[in-house]
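Design a sequence for this backbone.
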């Protein structure tokens, strides 16, 4: 047996500790340099500042917060944030300028733009993403989950916060034994003075409820991103303090508004039960803070398995009851059903042509001089292979046409608008590009463009009271009816 002096053992152990610490330091530095965003170090050398564009919901806010934390690890100061939303709001947001020292970043949004240098998202598909954009697309229950636990070398949000955010964003309530009243009675609980951080799920649900109640207040969501830290509790604290400071609706007001909304929906002829399917047209009175709740139909009809709601703006959505443990009832796939319904009229939809002038005009309804606007990049991202009468790149008219498309609608002459009248895309391709979903929730969108074969006449237009429904409204209701009918058939099988 060889005896080693105690002094030698102590020295050896010290050496091991020192080596381990150095190794860990090197590993940590390596992980930081090899983060989940391609070329992040080059971007950090190029840009000293950043502005973040984010979706108008809880996942959008926390994704922006997570990205802000990640960028600041690389010395990139986030100096501003902006809400972006699908529809005409997508093209009305402030136009970023990537030519200076401020980097535009997009999170939790499926439609990319060439101007964004970083783009992260968790939806099934993305459009408009350029090759030189540094991306991280990963199918997940929330985008913040990817940013916090995959992109960042160390977790930004706690696992508990991520679990709550995932449940909210994916409506995975049954898994956690959350019922409609648990979601909808939050304002009452808040009113009673209960502390949400004492109840794990109450914190996440109430934070989301308050955020959605105030989300349309100018500057509110941007304030949360710029002032909160990556923590649901901190976000909740900032929401309550900001709401009090600005004189937003009180918990008492919101509780009263919600009770009134539930009562009105219970009496509404636009919300009925057909077998185990809730059929709803429109959302009723939506504007009082705290009134609208997307889960109200399931509170009124908890036995229902599905909801099929049609919105007058040209959207039909089918969803499973998120409070039932067997969400995917009898193997029914709502995404497949939506495609089956559309396939019934595929020839007619492919024949029906929609002018690009209509798409651009509607897309830029709320656009201003400094807005992003609907550009050629958006047109090509959605419909490049499906356009009719678009000049080829070697045509003498190509650059002129691109210039017209990239010009704000309000600045176009009548002659230029006529050029866009002649470039068309089929209703089938429009609906396919703007729709999507999965097994338990699906959207059929872009239906409002169905009857717009020509541009709206110049000047103000107002539909006469008592006049017949517009063609596209009839189309929306037909889609809804066919979805309900097809779901019932699948259940019967």
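Sequence:
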């Amino acid at each position: 047996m060889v005896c080693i002096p105690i002094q030698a053992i102590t020295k050896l152990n010290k050496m091991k500790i020192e080596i381990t610490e150095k190794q860990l330091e090197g590993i940590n530095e390596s992980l930081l340099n090899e983060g989940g965003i391609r070329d992040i170090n080059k971007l950090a050398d190029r840009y000293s500042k950043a502005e973040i564009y984010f979706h108008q919901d809880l996942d959008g806010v926390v994704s922006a917060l997570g990205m802000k934390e990640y960028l600041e690890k690389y010395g990139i100061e986030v100096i501003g944030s902006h809400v972006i939303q699908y529809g005409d709001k997508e093209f009305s947001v402030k136009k970023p300028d990537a030519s200076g020292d401020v980097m535009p970043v997009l999170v939790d949004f499926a439609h990319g733009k060439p101007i964004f240098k970083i783009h992260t998202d968790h939806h099934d598909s993305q459009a408009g993403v350029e090759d030189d954009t540094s991306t991280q697309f990963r199918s997940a229950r929330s985008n913040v989950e990817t940013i916090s636990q995959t992109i960042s070398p160390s977790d930004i949000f706690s696992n508990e916060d991520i679990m709550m955010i995932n449940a909210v964003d994916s409506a995975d309530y049954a898994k956690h034994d959350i019922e409609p009243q648990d979601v909808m009675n939050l304002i009452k609980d808040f009113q009673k003075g209960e502390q949400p951080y004492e109840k794990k799920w109450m914190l996440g649900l109430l934070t989301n409820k308050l955020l959605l109640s105030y989300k349309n207040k100018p500057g509110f969501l941007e304030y949360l991103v710029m002032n909160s830290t990556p923590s649901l509790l901190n976000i909740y604290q900032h929401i309550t303090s900001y709401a009090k400071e600005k004189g937003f609706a009180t918990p008492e007001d919101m509780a009263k508004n919600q009770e009134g909304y539930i009562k009105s929906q219970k009496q509404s002829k636009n919300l009925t039960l057909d077998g185990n399917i809730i059929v709803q047209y429109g959302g009723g009175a939506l504007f009082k803070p705290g009134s609208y709740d997307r889960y109200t139909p399931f509170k009124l009809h908890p036995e229902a398995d599905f909801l099929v709601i049609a919105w007058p703006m040209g959207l039909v959505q089918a969803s499973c009851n998120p409070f039932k443990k067997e969400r995917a009832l009898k193997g029914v796939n709502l995404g497949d059903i939506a495609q089956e319904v559309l396939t019934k009229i595929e020839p007619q939809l492919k024949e029906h042509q929609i002018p690009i002038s209509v798409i651009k005009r509607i897309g830029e309804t709320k656009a201003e001089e400094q807005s992003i606007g609907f550009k050629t990049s958006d047109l090509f991202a959605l419909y490049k292979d499906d356009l009719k009468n678009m000049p080829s790149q070697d045509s003498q008219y190509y650059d002129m046409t691109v210039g017209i498309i990239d010009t704000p609608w309000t600045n176009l002459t009548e002659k230029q608008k006529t050029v866009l009248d002649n470039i068309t895309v089929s209703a089938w391709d429009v609906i396919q590009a703007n729709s999507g979903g999965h097994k338990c929730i699906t959207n059929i969108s872009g239906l409002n463009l169905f009857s717009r074969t020509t541009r709206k006449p110049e000047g103000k237009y107002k539909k006469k009271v008592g006049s017949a429904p517009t063609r596209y409204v009839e189309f929306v209701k037909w889609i809804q009816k066919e979805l309900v009918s097809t779901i019932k058939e699948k259940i019967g099988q």
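The first strand starts at residue 49 and ends at 55.
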